[in-house]
Amino acid sequence: MTIIRISNPVLTIATIVTVAVAGLAPAKTSLRAQGAAPLGAQGGFDRTRPPALAASAPLTVPVVRSARLSNGAALRVVEHRELPLVHVTLQVAGGARLDRDTPGLASFVANMLDEGAGKRNADALQSEIAFLGASLSTSADWDNTTISLKVSRRNLEPALDLMADIALRPTFAANEVRRQRDLRLAGLLQQKDQPRALATLAFNQLMFPAGHPYHNSIGGDSASTAALDSATVRRFHAESFRPARAAFTVVGDLSEADARRLLDARFSGWRTSGPERTPAPVLVQPTKLSGSKVYLVDKPAAAQSVIYIGAPGVERTSADFAAIQVMNTILGGSFSSRLMTNLRETKGYTYGASSGFQWRPLPGAFLASSDVRTDVTDSSLVEFFRELRLIRDSAVAPAELERAKAYIKLGLPGDLESTSQIAGQITSLAVYNLPLTWLQEYAAAIGSVTAADVQRVARRYLPADSALVVVVGDLANIRARVEALNLGPATVLDVGAIARE
Questions:
Q1: How far apart are CA 478 and CA 90, in angstroms?
Q2: 445-450 contacts: CB < 8 A, separation 24 or more?
Q3: In principle, which of 94, 301, 404, 455 could form an S-S bond with 329, CB 3.0–4.6 Å?
Q4: Which pLDDT belongs to residue 63?
């Protein structure tokens, strides 16, 4: 036996290695000599290459059972027993399209619903919601007023009592109306200092002429907000909250029979009389452009410019919906999209750039946007229009097409995991009278989209040559360079007129 002593000045003690010389087995041949796989390939697969994606499994959607309450309100129920949770959504059709000549009224009323209801003031109401461990919210969009409740199954009944009070018996106390009105007025004043808010206001006012429901801000303006009082709020609620317009969606740990029984016990007495508020007729259509037009909004000393590029959109029920979604995923609808890769990764002009279609019952708009450094405002506009024309004029590569289709299809199951996600999908589709099973048809349609389809819808719907361009930024530094691009005639907009003080 041979003893080898190795001294290391770093160590405080000697390291002794004992090697048994006698009786050693014959040296083994190397793994490579034996024909073994490379180190990266051990373990049954090659670690030096990314694994190939398997074919996506067919999409399975939950079963939705439909019924009606005794007062005629619609009911949709999905049993989801994985956790003892229940999500209840009440949608009342109408939303901001009922505002008529008072912009912001529907959203203000929705905000007031949980500021006191039944015998509880705002503080008592929020305390009881917290005590039950519930989440309860109220909101209004362009098409619906929505009340959403998420709570454990054991606390469902007292939570439904609160929900019924909020929906049917809001107090609309005069002092709370004044307080919320003043808060909204303060928020509207702040919009003048928020470039994104100004860009949104300007874009909507230019894209949707006066008389179109989407012309006004869903939050209203200073003049319409200042006129709000308790009587106006009560009248809107009485005229718009009707069981015939209502739909309940219940997802969670209970059956359809239990859901109907619990809701009927609290909402069967919901009856209405008197005049009914209806949406104003749509008298005008979105602005159609022949050639691009540029609108500039001054934000002195701004470090960034906000860029909006848009055009009239398309109906949600269009036969091109799947192809449009794939095309937009490639263009600006994902983190690996062309706009994001170009403006963020390659050029370093921005943290993010995106595009998308506003899907609403009335056609919304196509919008591509980004917040870019002031000194590259003109360069960013060049890149935006480069990408809009490129996807229109050149067929997408097969790998890029397949990646976009997989991005959409593989994301669908994740949208149906929780009670809230399932309820959200059901209520979103219901706006267009589509069942939850439509998602399966959509997944199949996405898989059938071709490169020719992508190019066709890009040519038809993207504003490569006729766009509405809104830029909010420091005009002293950007105006001359933006106008030098010759995108179209440029007009400077007044901030006060946009924000409608």
A1: 47
A2: 445/321, 445/322, 446/322, 446/325, 446/326, 446/405, 446/408, 446/409, 447/405, 447/409, 448/322, 449/322, 449/323, 449/326, 449/401, 449/405, 450/401
A3: 404
A4: 96
Q: Hey, is 472 helix, strand or coil? A: strand
pLDDT at 51: 74
**Token digits for 141?**
């969009």
Does 56 fall in a domain? no
Are both 216 and 300 inside the same structural domain?
A: no
DSSP 145-187: EEEEEEEEGGGHHHHHHHHHHHHH-B---HHHHHHHHHHHHHH
Query: Kind of pairing, strands 304-312 and 468-473?
Result: antiparallel
184: containing domain? 65-267
Q: 293 near 491, Cβ under 8 Å?
A: yes
User: For residue 157, what are the CA distances in angstroms to 80, 162, 488?
Assistant: 18, 9, 60
| Regions of the chain where pLDDT drops below 70 | 1-44, 53-54, 500-501
Residue 36 pLDDT: 54
* CA distances (Å), origin 86, targets 135, 246, 400, 426: 11, 19, 40, 15
Predicted confidence (pLDDT) per residue in 370-388, tens digit: 999 999 999 999 999 999 9
Pairing type for strands 74-79 and 144-152 reads unpaired
Say how far apart CA 276 and CA 239 lie, in whole Å. 5
Reported as a single tens digit per residue, the pLDDT across 242-288 is: 999 999 999 999 999 999 999 999 999 998 888 999 988 888 999 98
From the list 5, 46, 1, 40, the residue with the least C-alpha distance to 24 is: 1
Residues 6+ apart with CB under 8 A from 98: 105, 106, 236, 240, 277, 278, 279
User: The domain that contains 433 carries what CATH number?
Assistant: 3.30.830.10
CA distance 424 to 110: 18
Residue 395 lies in a domain: yes
Rounded to whole angstroms, the Cα distance separating 289 from 491 reads: 15
Q: Are 447 and 409 in contact (CB under 8 A)?
A: yes
Tokens matching residue 481: 């360079």
- How far CA 361 is from CA of 97, 194, 317, 356, 429, in Å, comes to 11, 29, 9, 16, 11
